[in-house]
Records
---
Amino acid sequence: MQTQPIVMALTKGRILEEVMPLLEQAGIHLLEDVSKSRKLIFDTNLPGLRIMIVRGSDVPTYVEFGSADLGVVGKDLLMEYGEGAFYEPLDLGIARCRLMTAAPVGARPPRGRVRVASKFVNIARRYFAEQGLQTDIIKLNGALELAPSMGLADWIVDIVDSGNTLRANGLEPLELIADISSRIIVNKAAMKIKHAELSELLAGIGLAVSARQAETATV
Ligand code: AMP
């Protein structure tokens, strides 16, 4: 019996740019230039593999419900979604950044409950509960850095790479919540049904990741 093609969910932007060289190294080529197309599903040179393009925060949803067999997603979005629904066999080591708390430069710790604005409300709630800190978590979808100066929040929980965005908005990083990089997640049922095909694909990408890491270690 022939199995259905494997569907891999990816995200446009930084993840796609950094994943493509790894896929190429694993012998996988897209038959079209994703950046120049408005299509959302693409064939590859492997008849058994298709690539779909979705928002990062939707990758876990597509993979959990099996519309995609596997996907590439930042650990931040994965932690926010909840990690139990998938296998997470591979850290690709790309799109690295840090998830941090941040506050206005030099600000004193607020007295009483701390108001925290974030896109990552589940992570923030968990983190501060573990710290035993009383917080009110406020959900924002973007421009978090404005929240303290506009009086909406005392602190934010956000992604930090160079730290320039924080600095430009009068904020400074406080505590590291997690080091972030992109991970491969796999649907649990697909891992059983398409075990041979997925294992081969994951092994190829795993080798490409190791080769890339060995290359950067010697530079
Ligand atoms: P930076 O100014 O270099 O610290 O970058 C911080 C901003 O860039 C954050 O607010 C994020 O929106 C975005 N960013 C940087 N790196 C990543 C990443 N790996 N994944 C998602 N967003 C990122």
Note: The chain has a mean pLDDT of 95.
---
Amino acid sequence: MLHTAVSRRDFLKTSTLAGASTILTGSRVPPTRIAGPVAIASGNGLGAVARAVEEINGGADALDAVISGVNLVEEDPNDTSVGYGGLPNAEGVVELDSAVMHGPTGRAGAVASLQGIKYPSKVARLVLQRTDHVLLVAEGAQRFARMHGFQIEDLLTERARESWVRWRENLSNRDDYLPPHGPDDRDLGEALRRNEDHWGTIHCSAIDLNGHISSVTTTSGLAFKIPGRVGDSPIIGAGLYCDNEVGAAGSTGRGEANLENCCSFLIVERMRMGDSPEAACLYACQRIAEHTHLARLQNEAGQPSFNVSFYALNKAGEVGGARIRGRGRMAVADANGARHIRMAYLYE
Ligand code: GLY
């Protein structure tokens, strides 16, 4: 049975560790009340946050609730950035990445380059629950999923296949291989000139009725990617991070920029230092902008020409998000229902 029960032994262990950590940093004030239920997600996760809060109100652990929430998007053939219906790699094969993190135990699980399994987030949870590891990839991840009863399915929908055929037929310089180049070379092709769907992903984090926090990120990754390419989503500290005493953060957008800056971990650490969720997310956007040195990744104004979005909540139930470029919205659900809220941004 899939469940995320926290044993009394684990609970006592994490409580003790949390106490020690509070003494070391000296900066955390324990919340006086439990903030849950609260769930946040990327803009494509309105249904996910609604379902997560509904399940939490029914007694679910935050991890099970957020996974159940994103399953709605993983199985949706119309979302071409996640799970079934996701846009395939350069060879027409759908490869999925996902990670989960469970605050009360501090455990994480992840899968990358997983083919043929519609719900990579469920497999990531099994890595957490049924292995002594954190990340399984490719064939090993698929074998592990089959061992636990998952069926192999063809995840390439007709719509995604047609998009892939169009891409193949118009390849020219629109792939992700780069010739030798220097830091000032700008015109290397159109790899980055993609619409945001091509880095689409869903992140969801929540606080449950016990005040415990958990997170999930799941994606089909960059559309038409070089086979085997792994983005930020399944990497703990990049695509998501969760500290049960502080809060959680997750991302969507250009995974390479996030991988190079470990932003979800950075955001949680900024919240630990007292930043609001929104301020911490903006800080991560700023960090990426400052570290974007290559001309091919910049616009004429020297700003990042790509986008990354971050979503965060803290232990008190405050939520916020920020993007590098342009207005955007994220999904939130709590006792007042599910809705979209605006995100902050660095550049118009
Ligand atoms: N952020 C999703 C990816 O880059 O794969």
Note: The pocket of glycine is lined by residues 199, 201, 219, 221-222, 231-233, 252-255 (CB under 6 Å).
